[in-house]
Every structure is written in C-alpha cells, then in structure tokens.
Write a structure and sequence with these properties.
Number of domains: 1
Shape: elongated
Radius of gyration: 21 Å
Number of strands: 8
Order of helices and strands: EHEEEEEEE
Strand order of the largest sheet: 1-6-5-4
CATH class: Mainly Beta
CATH architecture: Sandwich
Structural class: alpha+beta
Distance between the termini: 44 Å
CATH topology: Immunoglobulin-like
C-alpha cells in the first residue's frame, strides 16, 4: 500500500525556478502534514487494515471513498467552542479539513471494504482476494 497525502509534485523545467519554489513546496508539505491525522497500516494473510486517529471528529464528518484503486479518508474537525471571558495561553488542538489517501494493492477486494469508528479511531478492513497465478495467453493468428 502506498500513501498519497494529496500533494502533487511540481515538475518545473527551469532549474532556477525550481530552486526558488523548493522552500514554498516544503512549507506547503508541512502545512498539509499539520492537518493530516495519524495513521497505522498493517496486513495479515487475509486482509489489510488502516486505522486513522480522529479524536473529536464526529462520524458524520468523515467520508471514505475508493476511486481507481485509491482509498481516500476525508473530513473535517470543526471548532465549535465559545469561551467568553477566557484568554488562552496556548492551544495545541488542530481544526480544519483533512484528507489521507492510500493506493490499494492489486489483491485488495474493493467490493468488501468495511469501516468501523470507535473511541475516535476509524478502522478500515480491506479483505484480500486471490489473484490468478497464470496470466492470459494470447493466441497469434496467421495473416
């Protein structure tokens, strides 16, 4: 399984522009990572499992989609707290939209994916399917 955090690499033909854009790309990657939830990916002989840490995110604010063998988890953690008469020294809570994407392996059974959400952890089970060992033989016709 290969993760794609949604960032698209920039391909620049001009070396000068590439060196100018590098710091901007690094900043953009750090910002994207800041809002990305923590993830664990594992597998057994029968299935793959992806667990996404989403504390404080209601189940209704989470979407799971599969398109072209890419599984994407997206959603939003909203700030809905009103504190009158209170000044914060600091807050390490993060809010906003998030998205994590994973390229599924060839043997992933996309039709039988199941997800559960408990105690702020989204668990996605992706069963494996048997792949045929032999490829398809193509007959050569005489012209």
């Amino acid at each position: 399984m290969v993760e794609n955090s949604g960032r698209t690499p920039m391909h620049l033909s001009d070396n000068w522009w590439g060196t100018v854009a590098d710091p901007l790309r690094q900043i953009a990657a750090k910002i994207a990572d800041f809002f990305a939830p923590a993830v664990e990916a594992s597998h057994t002989k029968d299935a793959y499992e992806i667990c996404v840490e989403l504390p404080g995110v209601p189940e209704d604010n989470i979407a799971i989609n599969i398109t072209h063998s890419m599984l994407t988890v997206s959603g939003e953690k909203r700030f809905e707290r009103q504190e009158e008469g209170r000044d914060f020294f600091f807050s390490e809570f993060s809010y906003g939209k998030f998205q994590r994407s994973f390229r599924l392996p060839e043997d992933a059974d996309e039709d039988r994916v199941k997800a559960t959400f408990k105690d702020g952890v989204l668990s996605i089970a992706i069963p494996k399917k048997a792949l045929g060992k032999a490829g398809k033989k193509i007959a050569i016709t005489k012209s």
